[in-house]
Amino acid sequence: MGNPYSSLKIFHHKDALDSLERKEHRAPIYIRLKPTNFCNHHCAYCTYGSGDTYQKTENRDSIEHRDMIPWDKLQEIIADMGVMGVKAITFSGGGEPLTYPYIREAVQQVKRHGIDLSLITNGQLLKGNIAEEFYSAKWVRISFDAPLASVYSSLRRIPETSFYKVCENIRSFAQNKDRDCVLGVNFVISKANCDHVYEAAALLKDLGVDNVKFAAVVENEPHYHLDIKDKVIEQLHRAQKELVDPFDGHMFRIVNNYENDWMDKNFTTQPFETCYTCRLITVIAADQRVYLCHTRAYDSQAVVGDLHHQSFREMWFSDTTKKRLENLQPQRDCRNFCVYEARNQLIQSYFDTDMRHVNFI
What we know:
Strand order of the largest sheet: 7-6-5-4-3-2-1-8-9-10
Radius of gyration: 20 Å
Number of strands: 10
Number of helices: 13
Helix content: 25-40%
Distance between the termini: 26 Å
Order of helices and strands: HEHEHEHEHHEHEHEHEEEHHHH
């Protein structure tokens, strides 16, 4: 089974790389679509500061939790994506995308345009007719952060009964989804759940998920992970050794991002001079604004354009947007860690190749 989180996927889009090298402005390949900022969970670590929490990263300074893309505007946006040749979208937050009142209709419209579909959700509403719409998605990723109802409830500030409902939804979705739909879980490790990493991996394998990605919570507090990193890494290695069996009929995978993520990346500057990724991937948020990337969504300094009075297609191909992306200097303009750091560095290395020696591989 291939790596769904590989930074090398961009190299299967040679036409896009050629356009970047020629400094041509083209439609994005992939869009994160945040239809609503409302969330039915209130996670203590949410970088969007959902509900009554205050953990949002410092750069997110413009979130209004009542914001939602009007249905007529969302239909226009999806139609524009189809015309522009956008290849894939993810419904994500912001808030919980499955609380959007027209989510089924939106998914159906995406399918009609032949755009690859995916979802990031907390899983509580992933059932019935809504779940059925996503059985044929390329992937569904569920945010899940504890194998115990008490810890899960405490982290998310919801009743313990919700834990059992989400577990039931995960098991049901795993059993009913299309074979090619990859069901993953994103597990954010913090001091509140760091003792339950192995236990969570075992539970999620039993529920039938295809993979679990373990990542470090992004903290505004320096050195947050120093006291817990060793026991977390020990559990991750144990889980990989004991729970991953290449000869198992159900190929379960553990993606260990924590081991490289625990460092204080929120307190470092970007090591690259050009962001290529923001020209290939963009974010349309519930406030009807377009942002440089999902890490900087709801950052007033990262707005690319506003869709209140223009279509997405008009905005994206405008001279203003072209200049905005061309003039971005990550080392000067980006104040937070970059999830696309490896990708940007790989693309730069690709462009820096001395073509006179290209055959000496």
